[in-house]
Design a protein that fits this description.
Strand content: under 5%
Number of helices: 16
Strand order of the largest sheet: 1-2
CATH superfamily of the largest domain: Na+/H+ antiporter like domain
CATH class of the largest domain: Mainly Alpha
Distance between the termini: 20 Å
Radius of gyration: 24 Å
CATH topology of the largest domain: Na+/H+ antiporter like fold
Helix content: over 70%
Number of strands: 2
Length: 433
């Protein structure tokens, strides 16, 4: 039985992601209605409105939608990087035994949809969309699990979260390798040198939030100008955040006791306001607390709400507004291909490889997870949405017909996957595989 003190943070994570899924759904519906309403021109004008600055030698002047996709999403990927690092160091992916179950699921969930896309694709111009159906939207999928309540065990939610994180890592690598432009190596090398400096400081146990933000902005800009998608900078920057500092628990507790005793000694007069000595000790307490707390854990905690409740819904609002009844023709073959990949590719890929790995004893599935639940959560993995739309926007950035077709396919495939997964998981069963 897993201790409550371990479950509580995870349950809070699930709750945040579940409500984020509801906000995502609301933002998507608003975007679709807005883009297909009499006010559709204002929707397009808003996201194409250019902001930024430019000088004679430097320009950073982009449409609002690119500030969302390149800027805000870099923060989203920064959070993903923090989660990946935490999971590999101290979480559900910190050993071969722990990582095997979700890893096999993630591999099947990435490779099979990509294979089906390549097999069904007959148009060379849409081939570059092969990466669209490979990732799972953790917020939407966990929101569906949340609706099921106690019908699904917590271990199934942990499994879904773990393989979605591996999916995200795979998507990050795909974006870096296949969806970046022509590379300017001079700028890229400069960014790598700055990153190496941050890694060195992290290795030495030094952490400065101010330095991290300053160099982070510079590194993001260098990646953007170098032709590497700047969201990758977010992930790499996250890897430079130390999970702990040099101040250990015994030293912190010792200083905490000293500060407490000093505050008690300074409160003999029992005045209604703090004495100068007490204020100094409180400042010491804040300073020691900052030095003691985990930078990675602190940043992850502070960013999670911003990403879940603001950045991702804004991304959905900016990207989900497809004109369904407009003058732009849709590529039906691309729509169908993505729908099939998300529904069939994900479900077959994840469940079949897990059953096979279980059969040849490569993975050990928790006893409270049944065959039906594995199949059900495999369908939920077909909810691609955020990452799928993001990759589509990179693949078809200058081709609105294919981009809108991909978005329609993602919306339809994700919706059908969610419905099928919900129906399968709503039937309670105790038979394990």
């Amino acid at each position: 039985m897993i201790p409550e003190k371990i479950l509580s943070p995870y349950q809070k994570f699930v709750q945040i992601e579940s409500f984020s899924g509801i906000l995502l759904m609301a933002a998507t519906i608003i975007a679709l209605i807005w883009a297909n309403s009499p006010f559709s021109e204002s929707y397009q004008s808003l996201w194409q409105y250019k902001i930024g600055f430019k000088t004679q030698d430097f320009e950073l002047y982009k449409p609002l939608i690119l500030w969302v996709n390149d800027g805000l999403m870099a923060i989203f990927f920064f959070l993903i990087g923090l989660e990946i690092k935490r999971e590999f160091l101290i979480g559900e992916l910190n050993s071969i035994k722990k990582v095997a179950f979700p890893l096999f699921g993630a591999l099947g969930g990435m490779l099979v949809p990509v294979g089906i896309f390549i097999l069904l694709n007959q148009n060379p111009e849409t081939f570059k969309g092969w990466g669209v159906p490979m990732a799972t939207d953790i917020a939407f999928s966990l929101a569906v699990l949340k609706l099921l309540g106690n019908k699904v065990p917590l271990s199934l939610k942990i499994f879904l979260t773990a393989f979605a994180i591996v999916d995200d890592l795979g998507a990050v690598l795909v974006i870096a390798l296949f969806y970046s432009g022509s590379i300017k190596f001079g700028l890229l090398i400069t960014a790598i040198i700055l990153l190496s400096f941050l890694y060195f400081l992290s290795f030495r146990g030094f952490y400065s939030k101010f330095l991290m933000v300053l160099l982070g902005i510079i590194i993001w800009t260098l990646f953007l100008k170098a032709g590497i998608h700047p969201t990758l900078a977010g992930v790499l920057l996250a890897f430079s955040i130390p999970i702990s500092q040099k101040i250990r628990t015994p030293e912190f507790v010792e200083n905490l006791e000293t500060i407490t005793n000093n505050i008690k000694m300074a409160s003999i007069l029992k005045k209604p306001i703090l004495s100068k000595e007490q204020i100094n000790e409180i400042d010491n307490l804040e300073d020691w607390s900052t030095k003691y707390q985990s930078p990675l854990q602190h940043l992850e905690h502070n960013l999670h709400d911003w990403v879940a409740y603001f950045i991702i819904p804004i991304f959905a609002l900016a990207n989900a507004g497809v004109v369904i009844n407009g003058d732009i023709d849709l590529d039906t073959a691309l729509v169908i291909n993505i729908v099939v990949c998300l529904i069939i590719g994900k479900s077959v890929g994840i469940s079949s490889i897990i059953f096979l790995a279980k059969k040849i004893k490569l993975v050990e599935v928790p006893t409270d997870i049944s065959s039906r639940q594995i199949i059900g959560v495999s369908f939920l993995a077909g909810i691609g949405f955020t990452m799928s739309i993001f990759i589509a926007s990179l693949a078809f950035i200058d081709e609105p017909v294919y981009l809108d077709s991909a978005k329609i396919g993602i919306l339809i495939g994700s919706l059908i996957s969610a419905i099928i997964g919900y129906i399968i998981l709503s039937v309670k069963t105790t038979k394990s595989i």
